[in-house]
Structure formats: C-alpha cells, structure tokens
Amino acid sequence: MKELLAILEQQPFFEDFDPMHLRLLAACAAKLSYPADTRLMRDHEPTETFWLIREGQVALESPLREGCVTFQTLGPGDILGWSWLLPPYRASYDARALTELHTLRFDAGVLREHMEADPAFGYMLMKHFSALIVQRLQAARLQALDIYSHGGPGHGT
Amino acid sequence: MAPETLQPRTDSALPEQAMAPQPWRIRSVRPDVASNEVFSWTLYPEPGVEPGPLPTPGQFNMLYLFGVGEVPISVSAITADGGIVHTTRAVGSVTRTMQDLGPGAVVGLRGPFGTAWPVEQARGRDLVLVAGGIGLAPLRPVIHAALERRADFGRVVVCYGARAPGDMIFRDELDAWAARGDFDLRVTVDRATAAWRGDVGVVTQLIDRGGFDRRNTVAMVCGPEVMMRFAAASLERRGLKPEDIYVSMERNMRCAVGFCGHCQIGSQFVCRDGPVFPYPVMEPAFRIREL
C-alpha cells in the first residue's frame, strides 16, 4: 500500500488529489505487468478497470475489416481506459501492449462505489478523467485535420 | 483597446547589401524524404563573396532563383567549414523550381535575417523542443548546439511529430539522436504504417508525458500554427510559464528587413521582429481567424 501510494504521488495525473483520496485509489490498485502483445481491452467488451502505464507502450486500435488500425499509442505516465466511467461500461477500441508493460491496474468497479459514496472524491476523479477525455478528443481532432499537409514554417513558397 | 498605431522605421542601419543577393553555389543536394518533396542544399559563397555573419539558430536567409523568384528559407544547419544548409519543401512555384537544381548551380542569397531561438537564455535550464513536420528544420541547429554543449543544459527533450513515417525528415540523424543516452527524443506520427513501431498520435501527447522541470524549462516550438497553438497549451498545462515558450512564425516575407509589410502580423514584422517570438507576443494572433 505504501509503495502504491508513493507511485501515485509521483504521477502528474494524481498530483492534486488529497492524501485521503490517494489512499482510496491506492487501495483499489495493484502492480501488474504484461508481456508484449497482451490484449488489455477489446472493442465493445465490458471494462471494469483502468491502468496507469509505468513502463512500456500500448497501442489503441480500431478493428476494421482489413485488420486493426493503430490510431494512438500510450506510454509512461499515460492513463489507459475511461470506458469504466460511464454506462454501458464497454470499451470503444482495442488496447494491445506493444512492449512488455508495467502498470498500476485499478479496480474501477470498486472505485465507482467510492465515487458514489464520497461525492468529493467522485468529483475529483470525474474532473481528471473529463480533462483526459477532452485532451484525447482534441488530439483526435488535430490528427484528423492532417495539419502537416497544409504548410508551416520552413515550407517555402 | 485602441488599435495599435504603426510607426515608421527610424533605423537606417541596415546591413550592407541587405537587399542585394550574393552568389552562393550549391555543393550538395540531399533528399530528405523519399519523394524528394523535402530536400536540403548545402551552400558555399562564390569566390569574391564576403559572407556575412553566420546565421544563428532560428534565423533565415532569402534564397533567390534568378529569373524565378525569391523565398525565405530557414537555416537547418551550419557545417564546420562555413557552409549553410537550407531545408525546403517544394510547395510553390519557386520551391518547385529549386527542386530541379543540382550541385553546381548558383543561387542568390541574402541574409541572415530575423530573430534567433533563445539558446543562450536556456543555458542551465531544461530544454524542450517541439517540432511538427518540416518544422524540425529550423530547430535542428538548436539540437546541434545543445548536443555540442550538452553540459550547458539540463534535460533536453525533443518531441517530433510527422504525418507518416515516410514524411519524417533527417531520418539518419533521428536514429543517431535516438541512440544517445543523454537526450530524450520522442517521435510520433499521425498515421502509422504496418511497419512502424514507434508512437502514433499528435505531437502534443509527447509533451503531456512530461519529464522536464516545469519551473525551469525553456520550450521552443516550430510547426504549423494550429500545432504550435496546441503545443503551447500543452506546455502551459504542464506548468510552463507562457514567457518561457517560443514559437517560430511563417509568413510570406519579401524584403526580409521590415519595410514592405508582406509578412506583418498586427504590429509585428515576422521577418524583422521574428520569425522567433516569445509566445505571449503571438498568442493573441493565434486567436484571430484567417490571420
């Protein structure tokens, strides 16, 4: 527990949580490692967990008829998974370990119960995950804009 | 707020020959992507030409193709023997013509012009460089400087985003930089190929991974304006003060000395007051549509 708490305290994502809430999070977390190529989430399947990636790289993939297309990768310090937060609690993409992965895995089902019981904790977690979702949405928009094909410094005339 | 009143220039101390292109010869041409859409020239002055001061990182030269036109091109490296490397993407009539020139051709060169990246101010601090697409070219001299004087800086983080693996420039150098243990190179592409094993996603997500001291970091950002806007927002989110963030602007520069106004953004002449600006100076312009 002490070790998990120390890990959480070092992570920017959790930096403004108060100590009591960090202890709650630590109580719902476990250190887990996965070999490369492990599928952590599968599109449309129920998700009751999220991960803090400590080491390694994860691909977020959309299954298409031609095969899976990687649209984003996550690395150390990134949070993987937010589908546990809102009904119907199903993943909206695949997540696959590209390398050996070291994580903190959170039991989101239990966390949701804590969030209901302690609105301050629930608000804090919801606020952080909303920011994360907005960040990912903005990144997806930027990616869709195909910005590098429209010029930029050094492009010349 | 009252509109800013433009003041006529009062300084007349333009460098000698500021408007007269000098003949420089292309010694080598290097394609930087497989399609040759991006290429680098290494230029040396013709005999009898007294070269001006060497450009400092971030500055640009005006390259003149006789009978075709003149374009501002940033400096992407300085060789040990005084050659200047310019990296260009062929997107317009002049740069497409440039694409056809080979070693031995002579072009006109005026410069160097403009402001430089604040490399000296970054001494003793962490350095975060964020480049998008061909925006890596104007930042490359900063990387060279930081690697040459590695002990002068804290952590050096380079975040580079390209459209696809095949669009990444300076591939050999990227591999060499990645192999160094004293510098954190993060590369991502918007669109991966099956063979790509690196990161996928926009360059801003590489900033979000941190790894630098928010209270003691200087960030330099170069790429398409929308990318610079998002990158600056990510850097601010990571705790950097706006005044510690610098951006390099691209405009259609003509005179390069702040007279003609072609490159003006508000009261700023990009050629003279830029192209490198502190972010707070350019931030209001980023919010104006179609500027």
Summarize the structure.
Chain A has four helices and eight strands, in the order ααββββββββαα. Chain A is α+β, with helices and mostly antiparallel strands.
Verbal overview:
Chain A is built from four helices and eight strands; from the N terminus they run H-H-E-E-E-E-E-E-E-E-H-H. Chain A has about 160 residues and is α+β, with helices and mostly antiparallel strands. In chain A, the strands form two sheets. In chain A, strands 1-8-3-6 form a four-stranded antiparallel sheet. A four-stranded antiparallel sheet of chain A has the order 2-7-4-5, with no helix packed on it. In chain A, helix 3 crosses helix 4 (about 120-145). Chain A starts with a helix and ends in a 12-residue tail after the last helix. The relative contact order of chain A is 0.19. Chain B is an alpha/beta fold and about 290 residues long. Helix content of chain B is about 20%, strand content about 30%. Chain B has seven helices and 15 strands. In chain B, strands 10-9-8-7-11-12-15 form a seven-stranded mixed sheet, with helices on both faces. The radius of gyration of chain B is 19 Å and the shape is globular. The mean pLDDT of chain B is about 90. The interface of A and B includes residues 57, 135, 138, 152 and 153 of A.
